[in-house]
């Protein structure tokens, strides 16, 4: 059992940090992208993005008006009371950060004004990694989330089918997800698992390679391919359409090959915290890898 107030305050800080401070790996990739662009339109977009990031961190204000819907990945022992603490933290953050109240009823469109609702915030519970509680916050704005794709491929389509599905999704998205994006891909599992894996893939920093050498090679190849599409920053053309590609996989049915694709905008916000049994809390925008 964890102290609800400690969880609430931890979540408040997680959210404030995530929406105002972009992880160093993402900023670094944006800066490298600026160096390789050779058109003024693309350079202007990237300079504006970088200036926006610096201003948000200095002013401690959200870097994007779309502060997303609250998504959490949680692991740890004795998870009773965690949901209540997270919900209280989201509600408090909505007022204090502040966050735009984005959460509405899908049918009536009623907005409670605190980013809470049925099954929201979205919390994904995972196996405990140790004797600590780990909470990771991943806000997703509608521009990128609306470009999500689920494809149920025939297993015979194999890796080529996966590449084609990803290329098709990114090209069709054009500038809607605010590129340069990070492309999360979930391969395998059941249909719902593939989409969740795609979202979970976005948690791995851009400077942390995939432990699976085959997936690492696929990530690098897809990044090169996608950056040759010419979509470019904010969809206005250029050499930088994606900052990176991240893939997670799960075993699947012998007659199935599900592919989940989840895009993350350039404002790839995330933050993690670990609450230890003695009450010490550690935070990291890079995660605990």
Topology (elements, then pairings):
Layout: H1 4-20, H2 24-36, H3 40-59, E1 71-75, H4 82-96, E2 122-126, E3 133-137, H5 142-145, E4 149-153, H6 158-173, E5 181-188, H7 191-201, H8 213-226, E6 242-250, E7 257-264, E8 271-275, E9 281-284
Parallel strand pairs: 1-2, 5-6
Antiparallel strand pairs: 1-3, 3-8, 4-7, 5-7, 8-9
Helix pairs in contact: 1-4, 2-3
Explained architecture:
By secondary structure, this protein is of the alpha+beta class. The chain folds into 2 domains: 4-22 and 63-139 and 269-284, no CATH class; 142-264, no CATH class. It is built from 8 helices and 9 strands. The chain has a 5-stranded mixed β-sheet, with helices on one face. A 4-stranded mixed β-sheet has the order 4-7-5-6. The radius of gyration is 19 Å and the shape is globular. The chain starts with a helix and ends in a 5-residue tail after the last strand. The mean pLDDT is 97.
Summarize the structure.
This protein is an alpha+beta fold and 289 residues long. It is globular and about 50 Å long. It is 38% helix and 19% strand.
Shape: globular
Task: Return the string of H and E elements.
Answer: HHHEHEEHEHEHHEEEE
Rg for CA atoms: 19 Å
Number of strands: 9
Low-confidence stretches: none
The amount of beta strand, in percent, is 15-25%
Identify the strand order in the major beta sheet.
2-1-3-8-9
- The helix count comes to 8
Structure classification: alpha+beta
Terminal CA distance: 25 Å
| Helical content class | 25-40%
Could you describe the largest sheet, including whether it forms a barrel? 5 strands, mixed
Kindly state the mean pLDDT as a whole number?
Answer: 97
Please indicate the count of domains: 2
